[in-house]
Design brief:
The protein has helices at about 5-10, 15-25, 40-55, 60-70, 75-115, 145-155, 180-185, 225-230, and strands at about 1-5, 30-35, 35-40, 120-125, 130, 160-165, 175-180, 195-200, 200-210, 240-250, 255-265. It is α+β, with helices and mostly antiparallel strands.
Protein backbone atom coordinates (compact mmCIF):
# COMPACT_ATOMS: atom_id res chain seq x y z
CA UNK A 1 0.00 0.00 0.00
CA UNK A 2 0.90 3.66 -0.34
CA UNK A 3 0.62 6.15 2.54
CA UNK A 4 0.61 9.94 2.34
CA UNK A 5 2.86 11.99 4.58
CA UNK A 6 -0.22 13.43 6.27
CA UNK A 7 -1.60 9.98 7.13
CA UNK A 8 1.75 8.78 8.44
CA UNK A 9 2.24 11.95 10.49
CA UNK A 10 -1.22 11.71 12.10
CA UNK A 11 -1.15 8.00 12.94
CA UNK A 12 2.46 7.76 14.11
CA UNK A 13 2.47 11.13 15.87
CA UNK A 14 5.50 12.35 13.95
CA UNK A 15 5.92 15.80 12.49
CA UNK A 16 6.93 16.11 8.86
CA UNK A 17 10.26 17.54 10.04
CA UNK A 18 10.83 14.37 12.09
CA UNK A 19 10.05 12.25 9.04
CA UNK A 20 12.53 14.26 7.00
CA UNK A 21 15.12 13.71 9.76
CA UNK A 22 14.57 9.93 9.61
CA UNK A 23 15.07 10.14 5.86
CA UNK A 24 18.38 11.95 6.26
CA UNK A 25 19.53 9.39 8.86
CA UNK A 26 18.75 6.54 6.47
CA UNK A 27 16.08 4.96 8.68
CA UNK A 28 13.53 5.22 5.85
CA UNK A 29 13.88 5.79 2.14
CA UNK A 30 13.12 9.09 0.49
CA UNK A 31 9.37 9.21 -0.29
CA UNK A 32 8.34 8.32 -3.82
CA UNK A 33 6.57 10.90 -5.92
CA UNK A 34 3.64 10.27 -8.22
CA UNK A 35 1.57 13.02 -9.89
CA UNK A 36 3.18 15.53 -7.53
CA UNK A 37 2.21 13.59 -4.38
CA UNK A 38 4.82 12.13 -2.01
CA UNK A 39 4.04 8.78 -0.42
CA UNK A 40 5.60 6.07 1.76
CA UNK A 41 5.50 2.32 1.28
CA UNK A 42 4.98 -0.62 3.67
CA UNK A 43 8.72 -1.03 4.27
CA UNK A 44 8.96 2.62 5.39
CA UNK A 45 6.04 2.23 7.83
CA UNK A 46 7.62 -0.96 9.19
CA UNK A 47 10.87 0.89 9.91
CA UNK A 48 9.13 3.94 11.41
CA UNK A 49 7.09 1.85 13.84
CA UNK A 50 10.21 -0.13 14.74
CA UNK A 51 12.08 3.13 15.27
CA UNK A 52 9.33 4.35 17.64
CA UNK A 53 9.71 1.10 19.60
CA UNK A 54 13.42 1.66 20.08
CA UNK A 55 12.92 5.35 20.87
CA UNK A 56 10.45 4.31 23.58
CA UNK A 57 13.29 2.22 25.05
CA UNK A 58 15.48 5.33 25.10
CA UNK A 59 17.75 4.32 22.22
CA UNK A 60 19.23 7.43 20.52
CA UNK A 61 18.08 8.08 16.95
CA UNK A 62 21.59 7.82 15.56
CA UNK A 63 21.99 4.35 17.13
CA UNK A 64 18.67 3.34 15.55
CA UNK A 65 19.92 4.60 12.19
CA UNK A 66 23.10 2.53 12.60
CA UNK A 67 21.06 -0.56 13.47
CA UNK A 68 18.89 -0.13 10.37
CA UNK A 69 21.70 0.62 7.97
CA UNK A 70 25.02 -0.79 9.22
CA UNK A 71 26.08 -4.08 7.70
CA UNK A 72 28.41 -4.96 10.60
CA UNK A 73 25.83 -4.69 13.41
CA UNK A 74 25.06 -8.10 14.90
CA UNK A 75 21.97 -9.43 16.64
CA UNK A 76 24.07 -9.93 19.78
CA UNK A 77 24.87 -6.20 19.82
CA UNK A 78 21.20 -5.27 19.39
CA UNK A 79 20.19 -7.56 22.26
CA UNK A 80 22.98 -6.16 24.45
CA UNK A 81 21.64 -2.67 23.84
CA UNK A 82 18.11 -3.79 24.76
CA UNK A 83 19.43 -5.35 27.98
CA UNK A 84 21.07 -2.06 28.86
CA UNK A 85 17.79 -0.19 28.27
CA UNK A 86 15.90 -2.81 30.28
CA UNK A 87 18.22 -2.25 33.26
CA UNK A 88 17.83 1.53 32.93
CA UNK A 89 14.04 1.14 32.85
CA UNK A 90 14.11 -1.09 35.96
CA UNK A 91 16.16 1.52 37.82
CA UNK A 92 13.79 4.28 36.71
CA UNK A 93 10.85 2.17 37.90
CA UNK A 94 12.42 1.91 41.36
CA UNK A 95 13.02 5.66 41.43
CA UNK A 96 9.44 6.43 40.40
CA UNK A 97 8.10 3.97 42.98
CA UNK A 98 10.09 5.78 45.68
CA UNK A 99 8.85 9.13 44.34
CA UNK A 100 5.26 7.89 44.55
CA UNK A 101 5.84 6.90 48.18
CA UNK A 102 7.35 10.31 49.00
CA UNK A 103 4.40 12.12 47.42
CA UNK A 104 2.00 9.77 49.19
CA UNK A 105 3.58 10.67 52.53
CA UNK A 106 3.04 14.37 51.86
CA UNK A 107 -0.57 13.73 50.83
CA UNK A 108 -1.35 11.60 53.89
CA UNK A 109 0.22 14.05 56.34
CA UNK A 110 -1.35 17.00 54.55
CA UNK A 111 -4.85 15.54 54.55
CA UNK A 112 -4.57 14.64 58.22
CA UNK A 113 -3.21 18.08 59.01
CA UNK A 114 -6.07 19.91 57.27
CA UNK A 115 -8.50 18.14 59.61
CA UNK A 116 -6.56 18.69 62.83
CA UNK A 117 -4.27 21.71 62.40
CA UNK A 118 -2.74 22.72 65.71
CA UNK A 119 -4.03 19.63 67.56
CA UNK A 120 -1.31 17.87 69.55
CA UNK A 121 -1.17 14.09 69.75
CA UNK A 122 1.39 11.48 70.74
CA UNK A 123 2.91 9.11 68.19
CA UNK A 124 6.18 7.42 67.34
CA UNK A 125 8.60 9.52 65.30
CA UNK A 126 11.03 8.06 62.79
CA UNK A 127 14.79 8.47 63.02
CA UNK A 128 15.70 11.47 60.92
CA UNK A 129 18.80 13.05 59.40
CA UNK A 130 19.06 16.84 59.37
CA UNK A 131 21.25 19.22 57.36
CA UNK A 132 22.14 22.45 59.17
CA UNK A 133 24.64 24.83 57.58
CA UNK A 134 27.30 26.34 59.81
CA UNK A 135 26.23 29.81 58.63
CA UNK A 136 22.65 29.27 59.82
CA UNK A 137 20.81 29.63 56.50
CA UNK A 138 19.36 27.15 54.07
CA UNK A 139 22.04 28.11 51.53
CA UNK A 140 25.46 27.61 53.18
CA UNK A 141 28.19 30.19 52.69
CA UNK A 142 30.92 27.56 52.93
CA UNK A 143 31.76 26.10 49.49
CA UNK A 144 32.12 22.51 50.69
CA UNK A 145 28.79 22.74 52.50
CA UNK A 146 27.21 24.15 49.34
CA UNK A 147 28.11 20.97 47.45
CA UNK A 148 26.49 18.87 50.18
CA UNK A 149 23.39 21.10 50.26
CA UNK A 150 23.05 20.72 46.49
CA UNK A 151 22.96 16.92 46.82
CA UNK A 152 20.33 17.20 49.54
CA UNK A 153 18.11 19.54 47.57
CA UNK A 154 18.31 17.32 44.50
CA UNK A 155 16.85 14.48 46.64
CA UNK A 156 13.53 16.34 47.13
CA UNK A 157 10.74 15.45 47.82
CA UNK A 158 12.37 12.74 49.97
CA UNK A 159 14.20 15.71 51.50
CA UNK A 160 11.97 18.42 52.95
CA UNK A 161 12.47 22.03 53.92
CA UNK A 162 12.42 22.06 57.70
CA UNK A 163 13.04 23.94 60.92
CA UNK A 164 14.98 22.29 63.76
CA UNK A 165 15.80 23.16 67.33
CA UNK A 166 18.38 21.19 69.28
CA UNK A 167 18.45 21.04 73.07
CA UNK A 168 21.31 23.55 73.18
CA UNK A 169 19.81 26.00 70.67
CA UNK A 170 18.49 29.36 71.84
CA UNK A 171 16.29 29.53 68.74
CA UNK A 172 15.13 27.21 65.99
CA UNK A 173 17.08 27.31 62.72
CA UNK A 174 16.20 26.59 59.07
CA UNK A 175 17.39 23.23 57.82
CA UNK A 176 16.72 20.31 55.50
CA UNK A 177 15.49 16.94 56.75
CA UNK A 178 14.95 13.38 55.55
CA UNK A 179 13.95 10.16 57.26
CA UNK A 180 16.92 7.91 58.00
CA UNK A 181 15.10 5.12 56.15
CA UNK A 182 14.99 7.13 52.89
CA UNK A 183 18.40 8.69 53.41
CA UNK A 184 20.15 5.39 52.77
CA UNK A 185 18.48 5.14 49.34
CA UNK A 186 19.51 8.71 48.52
CA UNK A 187 23.16 8.30 49.52
CA UNK A 188 22.80 10.64 52.51
CA UNK A 189 24.61 9.92 55.77
CA UNK A 190 25.03 11.74 59.06
CA UNK A 191 28.56 13.14 59.51
CA UNK A 192 28.05 14.62 62.99
CA UNK A 193 28.78 18.13 61.71
CA UNK A 194 26.38 19.82 59.32
CA UNK A 195 24.56 16.53 58.74
CA UNK A 196 23.21 15.16 62.01
CA UNK A 197 21.23 12.13 63.14
CA UNK A 198 18.02 12.80 65.11
CA UNK A 199 16.85 9.73 67.08
CA UNK A 200 13.18 8.89 66.85
CA UNK A 201 10.89 7.61 69.59
CA UNK A 202 7.63 8.58 71.26
CA UNK A 203 6.95 12.22 70.47
CA UNK A 204 4.47 15.06 70.70
CA UNK A 205 3.15 15.75 67.22
CA UNK A 206 1.14 18.48 65.54
CA UNK A 207 0.56 19.83 62.07
CA UNK A 208 0.95 23.59 62.30
CA UNK A 209 0.15 26.39 59.89
CA UNK A 210 2.01 29.69 59.92
CA UNK A 211 2.53 32.70 57.68
CA UNK A 212 5.65 34.56 56.61
CA UNK A 213 6.59 35.18 60.25
CA UNK A 214 8.42 31.84 60.20
CA UNK A 215 11.33 33.50 58.39
CA UNK A 216 11.99 35.95 61.24
CA UNK A 217 10.67 33.75 64.03
CA UNK A 218 11.09 30.08 63.09
CA UNK A 219 10.15 28.96 66.62
CA UNK A 220 6.55 29.83 65.76
CA UNK A 221 5.99 26.32 64.35
CA UNK A 222 6.72 24.72 67.73
CA UNK A 223 4.27 26.76 69.81
CA UNK A 224 1.48 24.12 69.96
CA UNK A 225 3.72 21.24 71.10
CA UNK A 226 5.72 23.46 73.50
CA UNK A 227 2.52 24.75 75.10
CA UNK A 228 1.23 21.18 75.40
CA UNK A 229 4.56 20.03 76.88
CA UNK A 230 4.49 22.77 79.55
CA UNK A 231 0.89 22.05 80.47
CA UNK A 232 1.41 18.28 80.77
CA UNK A 233 5.03 18.37 82.00
CA UNK A 234 6.68 16.67 79.07
CA UNK A 235 10.45 17.23 78.80
CA UNK A 236 12.15 17.54 75.43
CA UNK A 237 14.51 14.59 74.83
CA UNK A 238 16.12 15.23 71.43
CA UNK A 239 16.04 17.74 68.59
CA UNK A 240 12.61 19.14 67.72
CA UNK A 241 11.84 19.38 64.04
CA UNK A 242 9.15 20.40 61.63
CA UNK A 243 9.09 19.41 57.96
CA UNK A 244 7.24 21.49 55.39
CA UNK A 245 4.27 19.66 53.86
CA UNK A 246 3.01 22.32 51.46
CA UNK A 247 2.26 26.03 51.15
CA UNK A 248 -0.85 27.82 49.93
CA UNK A 249 -1.80 31.39 49.12
CA UNK A 250 -5.17 32.71 50.25
CA UNK A 251 -6.44 36.27 50.48
CA UNK A 252 -3.08 37.57 49.35
CA UNK A 253 -1.25 35.80 52.19
CA UNK A 254 0.96 32.71 52.15
CA UNK A 255 0.41 29.91 54.63
CA UNK A 256 2.86 27.10 55.33
CA UNK A 257 1.92 23.71 56.81
CA UNK A 258 4.56 21.99 58.95
CA UNK A 259 4.57 18.48 60.40
CA UNK A 260 6.20 19.01 63.83
CA UNK A 261 7.65 16.57 66.38
CA UNK A 262 9.24 16.70 69.84
CA UNK A 263 10.50 13.46 71.37
CA UNK A 264 10.12 13.46 75.15
CA UNK A 265 11.55 11.85 78.29
Amino acid sequence: MRYSIGDVSRVLGMTTSALHFYEREGIIDTPKVESGWRYYQEADIYRLISAKKYRAMGVPVRDIARQFSAEDLTGTQVIAQMKEKRDEAALAAQQYAALAQDIGRLIACGEEGLLSTGTVDIRRAEDMICFRSSSGGRIPLDRSEQAAAKRWIEAAPAVSLSICRELTDEHAVPSLIISARRAANCGIEADGCVTRHIPGGMALHAVVTCGEEQFDEPDVIFRPILAFAREHRFVQKETMWGSLLFAVCSGGKRYHYYDTYMTFE
